[in-house]
Amino acid sequence: MSTLEEDLQREGTTTLMEIVQGRQIEEQTADLTINGTDSFDGKITREDIELPQDFKGKLAFVLYNVFTTKECEEYIAQTEVMGYEEALVNVGGGRQVKMTDVRKSSRCIWDTVEEADRIWERIKSHVPEMWRDRKVLELNERLRFLRYDPGDYFQPHLDGAYVRDNGERSYITVQVYLNQGFKGGSTTFMSYSCENKVELVPKTGSVLVFQHDIMHEGSRLEEGRKYTIRTDVMYSAKQTET
Question: Domain Prolyl 4-hydroxylase alpha subunit: where (predicted)?
């Protein structure tokens, strides 16, 4: 079982107040799989995102038709069985507190190499093979399923990196959208001043990919219920010169 410190690091997020998201959880055994691949046709399309001026040139794009509606419905059903809990905020010193002025939503954490690999196989051809002299490896196997109900949101923040003991680390966020048709709840990129904004409306089965260090928010959900998966692209340890 991993330590609480490792768990929080794997879920790293930094808000404008430099708060890292996290909560203490029990490790879950994952003999679970998602089977709805029968209608996946592999016709994935990519759309690059025009970011606010503060982040021009940084990596951000969305892939469409990555997962079928059936697969997404199975992910939702499975995690509802596993159970969702309120997402708390880590404030340092191993303490997690309820901070609804920063974040209000529910979360289900599923540690599963198999499902992380399923996502990776479909998106890896679009992900940079090298990042800061590091080679791309895989996705973080910790999948954070997020559920938003009316009134839920995540205030503007930057995503933090997950660094493994062997030096492997993440630089890129992966967000899988499992449903659509709700009101509000967009992923919104913005400038540091939070004035210039670029809104992405979720579509079922699409995947948003972007650098950790881009300001964004989970905009307030007005009606319906929103489900997403959040994980990270892992890169190799930095090579030391001899």
Answer: 58-234
* Per-residue pLDDT tens digits for 186-197: 999 999 999 899
Q: Is the separation of the CB atoms in 235 and 167 below 8 Å?
A: no
Work out the pLDDT band at 98, boundaries 50, 70, 90. Answer: confident
DSSP 241: P
What is the C-alpha to C-alpha distance for residues 190 and 20, in angstroms, rounded to an integer? 19
Residue in this structure with the two tokens 């990776």, named with its chain if needed: 120
Structure tokens at 179: 């449903």
| pLDDT tens digit sequence for 44-82 | 999 999 999 999 999 999 999 999 999 999 999 999 999
DSSP state for residue 49 in the 8-state scheme: -
- Given a cut of 80, whether residue 94 has pLDDT beyond it is no
Backbone angles phi, psi at 123, to 5 degrees: -115, -10
DSSP 58: S
Structure tokens belonging to residue 83: 């159970």
Tokens linked to 5: 């410190």
Compute the distance between CA of residue 42 and CA of residue 49 in angstroms, rounded to an integer. 22
Q: How many CB atoms lie within 10 A of CB 204?
A: 19
Query: Distance between CA 40 and CA 67 in Å, rounded?
Result: 7
Q: What is the pTM of this model?
A: 0.85
